[in-house]
Design a protein that fits this description.
Blueprint lengths: L1 E5 L10 E5 L23 E5 L5 E5 L17 H53 L17 E3 L2 E3 L1
Length: 155
Amino acid sequence: MNETTAYSRPAGHETAAVEVHTPTPIVPAHTVPLVPVRPGTIPAVASVVLPDGRVVTGYAIEPAKPEPVAVKPAVSRAAVNIALGGVGFLAVCGGLLMLTAFIAALTALITQLVILAAVIFGGWIAVQVFSASGHSGGTTVNIRKAVIKRNKFYG
């Protein structure tokens, strides 16, 4: 229900209309029997006076507190140094292993190149020695056409 009430003010002031709102109670759909509960501590009731003179009373709500952060155990400097030393040692070992593998591969490559050069050079020499087109200043004898008389060759 809304009611409008006029207040008279001293002379020279205008009359102002004030509306008063009365709340309508909410009826719950299902009524649940109330069970009295004893709180561990009785909370403090706070009252606030609004600028227009009304007083609002209610319970103070404490802000939610975050859960405490678990304290991390301190790590000693010696443990950090040992861990860093271990990582460095593993890096050096890995580098040496890679260097060894690289040297072995390089050695195998050089060995194969030397063998290839020897095969090519040996083949070239064999072609030069057994070449039929080469003239060395001697005579070529065809044995099948030779005639043998008294242990002498006649061509």
